Amino acid sequence: MDRLPPPRLLRVFEIVDRMGGVKRAAQELNVSLPAVSQALRHLENHIGTSLFDRSTRPASLTEAGQILLKAVQDNRERLVEALTDIQALESAANTVTVACTMGFATYWLMPRLEAFYRDHPDIVVNVQTIPHEVPALGPGTDIAMRYGDGSWTDGTVHLLFEERVEPVCAPGLAARISEEGGSLASAFLIHVEVADKRWISWPQYFFRTSQKANGSAKGLRFSNYVQATQAALSGHGIMLGWRSITGDQVAKGLLVPVSLPAYRPPDAYYAVLSGRSKNAETADVVVNWLKHTAHTETL
User: Fold this and answer.
1) Worst-scoring range by mean pLDDT, 11-15, 56-60, 205-209?
2) What is the pLDDT of residues 80-93, one digit of tens each?
């Protein structure tokens, strides 16, 4: 007898656990309740032990059931990864997928892709974004643009550029602050609240640069740097500008420094090339172009 149970029985088993019972599982599968119960009995008979403790309400997994559920879930994840890798094999060899934060994509990467396409018209760059935190090198992702200390072990790490943090605001607001003697007391401070503590906050900036807030307790709070940057561009307050976020806006004169010292954090921006990339040679072309561009802009 084949030791592996039929896949349809494992699917029913997983759905019963996920839905919290046979009745909801039957609704999810669009079959009768007896059909689900029968499938579970067949699975238990095949394995030779009970998977559910039916003395409780609702029924709970036995130890054997927990072991089987973990195996089924792990197998599903591996299948998803395998299918993603297969789809990547079918994609064009000149397509590279880059994962990065929303702010980095909006204000640094996307504005430079036009120049990249002029130099490499045969390469297509797909951009995957997350609100913040460190982008993962999941299946199908060739490059992750990350801010940190560069100690990741899931790929080849390339330094892109060192960061620079400096308070910035719209030119009109900067003029008003200057007329009022340079005090921040009447200006809103724009805060970005993220879980990753490497992105420093206003209190951390003041502490690390030995500055005082000059009594300003007012503030606008956002959950990502795209919203915060738009607020600063609209003249709503002063934000902590990062090279990767507001550097281009400062270069264009859309935002200006607020006569407070710049801070250089110990972390930097890196391009991490996945060791699982199916298009490693093409991805390397993208990484080298981005490194060269960032280096040229630093000079």
Assistant:
1) 56-60
2) 878 877 766 655 56
Q: Is the peptide bond before 58 cis (omega within 30 degrees of 0)?
A: yes
Domain span at 44: 7-89
Residues 271 and 142 in one domain: yes
Nearest alpha carbon to residue 121 among 278, 285, 280 = 285
Cα within 13 Å of Cα(148), Cβ side: 18
The tokens of 252 are what?
């264009």
d(CA 111, CA 108): 6
Name the residue among 3, 65, 8 with its Cα closest to residue 39: 8
Task: Report which residue type is found at 166.
Answer: E
Q: CB atoms < 10 A from the CB of 253, how many?
A: 8
Give the phi and the psi of residue 116 in degrees, each rounded to 5.
-60, -45
Residue 1 lies in a domain: no
In this structure, the answer to whether residues 176 and 244 fall within a common structural domain is: yes
How far apart CA 212 and CA 233 sit, in angstroms, is: 24
Work out the percent of the chain whose per-residue pLDDT is above 90: 52
pTM, to two decimals: 0.68
**Domain identity same for 272 and 130:** yes
The tokens describing 17, both together, are 């656990």
Cα separation, 146 vs 37, whole angstroms: 49
Q: Tell me how far apart the terminal alpha carbons of the chain are, to the nearest angstrom.
A: 71
H or E, element range at 128: strand 124-130
Mean residue pLDDT across the chain: 88
Return phi, psi of residue 91, to 5°: -75, 165
Q: What does R_g of the chain's alpha carbons equal in angstroms?
A: 27
In a domain, 170, yes or no: yes
Would 68 be classed as within a structural domain? yes
